[in-house]
Amino acid sequence: MPWSVEGLGKGVALAIKGVIMAISNPEIQKAKFHRTFFYLIITSFVVYWISSFALSIPLGILRLLVHLFAFLFGFDNAVPDAFFLSVSGVIRDALMSVPLVGMLFVTYLYPRLLDDLFMDSLRYIDVQEAMQEGRRPYASALAEYEFKVDYWGNIVQYLKRTYKRFKLSILVYALTFVPLIGRFVVPLAGAYTVIKSLGLSLGVAVGVTSYILPPGYGIQILSTLFAMRALTRELLEPYFARTRLNTRERARWFREREDVVFAFSAVVFWLVRIPFLSVLGFGVAQAAAAYLLVHVTEPPTKKEADEKNKRVKKGDENEDENEDIPTLDVRGQAQAHNQGQGHGHGQFGQFAQFAPQAQFRMYRG
What we know:
Helix content: over 70%
Largest sheet: none
Oligomer: single chain
Order of helices and strands: HHHHHHHHHHHHHHH
Distance between the termini: 18 Å
Shape: globular
Number of helices: 15
Structural class: mainly alpha
């Protein structure tokens, strides 16, 4: 579907209204959600400080040894200091993502919490809008689909996706060291990946921009775009899990609404970037995603739900989780501009550490 200013404006409006409705939803304000997210936030602080302390010890010892070596042999320790400063910044940014990554991993083990949050949000939207406007209620229609979870399968697919991202990140990182072509690797890889997941127009724009701008900015643009896209897929996972759309169906769903969904993600993305409160921001964004769904998709019919449930019970459902997508696993805080820029490899210096970080599933298919 071609992008339009109207679609982008609609996406922004849905995000803002969705956040407002999520905050005002009395169901979300009940004790069970407050207590759950309070525990998650406290856990975020604990995990961050424990991880920070555990990593600072070996880094401090290594830095002390380097300084001692420089003192004994008369070397200048300015370069090692700059290196350790850069590494410390990367570790600090990575640790800020640990709480949200942990929460997303827990959702594989216990997805009921976010499903309840999503369904409660749909019910509230039905009361506030659907009944008043004469529309068919969405929550009751989606509830016709059985809620089933393949815990072991989810974890296995999670690990497979992470491994794929790691392999591709290493490959692209290695290509940036090749003379002559290294400078073009990131723009081309970025353009190709964006075209496959976000459309031709944005892909070309990203490729050209990544080539023109300083290397660090190109990485930041790609990081933010893919984090936004992956976040939206996570937020809509309760809908996809219930309707059991396969890889191609999910890809088609996004292509038909890509301008609206992109603008929506551009707003709610910043809710999960709030330090230490990213878990709470994710909960608000999850509820807001229900508002997006209501306004971009018609509620499924009971006949569709019955047919889908029958196919699942018979084992005829083909859940293809091996995504046929190019996946650059990037975060929204690239710091390549702090590194070397020779032969193009500096611009991709952060991709090696992006891969293990499955902060979001970039393309869950």
